[in-house]
Amino acid sequence: MSDMTIGKVAKAVGVGVETIRFYERRGLLDQPPRPEDGGYRVYPDEAVRRVQFIRRAQELGFSLREITELLSLRSAHSADAGDVRRRATVKLQDVDRKIVRLQRIRQGLATLLDRCPGAGPLQCCSILDALEQHDEGLSGELTQQQEEGMQTVRLTIGGMHCEGCTEIVRQVLEQQPGVKGCSVSHENGEARVAVDAALISGEQLAEAVRGAGYSASIAAEAD
């Protein structure tokens, strides 16, 4: 596999070429020099193992910044397993907090479904009524976020053509300070981002997306 082009590396790992280029721009993967004869760049076998490491770390919830730190530990002579364990422990605690939050949301949705008659005109829909009236069973989480200065920012994003682009934009947004979660759609060309307004602004989010090679602007910003 000594003649691996960027396309072959992407295929071996199961990602798009744009994802590999994004990792290179972020400094997670070294870009080989272009041959003097103007041919394709040739990647070493280590490139596949490195991208697989990045992908697996992402699946476990590590941000690109955290993955960069893990890769640095991997090559640091002074580091030991304890350093990696401490980072994994912090990530586990973060996952536990998210599970608690999701359980609260699930409980709120289950409460609404229990109240729903399942038939009849929309005017009698208990779910819509509860949403409009800020039912505590479902909106408690939202209320808590609002009290903590949470805000939803909607970005209009240009240049996304596939799910690979969607993933890149999502990764960029999720690693920004103050971002608590986001959803990205290449079909609609937009992203909705839940942020701590005290830590980051909508324009800063848009600038981060533009840094990844896409156009971005604030479509709406609401509490």
From TrEMBL:
Which organism is this entry from?
Answer: Billgrantia campisalis
SUPFAM superfamilies the UniProt entry points to: HMA, heavy metal-associated domain, Putative DNA-binding domain
InterPro entries recorded: DNA-bd_dom_put_sf (IPR009061), HMA_dom (IPR006121), HMA_dom_sf (IPR036163), MerR (IPR011794), MerR-type_HTH_dom (IPR000551), MerR_fam (IPR047057)
Functional description taken from the UniProt entry = Mediates the mercuric-dependent induction of mercury resistance operon. In the absence of mercury MerR represses transcription by binding tightly to the mer operator region; when mercury is present the dimeric complex binds a single ion and becomes a potent transcriptional activator, while remaining bound to the mer site.
Cite the HTH merR-type domain residue spans from the record.
1-73
SMART domains on file: HTH_MERR
Task: Kindly give the PROSITE patterns that the UniProt entry links to this protein.
Answer: HMA_2, HTH_MERR_2
User: What is the protein's name according to its record?
Assistant: Mercuric resistance operon regulatory protein
Keywords assigned by UniProt, alphabetized: DNA-binding, Mercuric resistance, Mercury, Transcription, Transcription regulation
Q: Which residues form the HMA domain?
A: 151-217
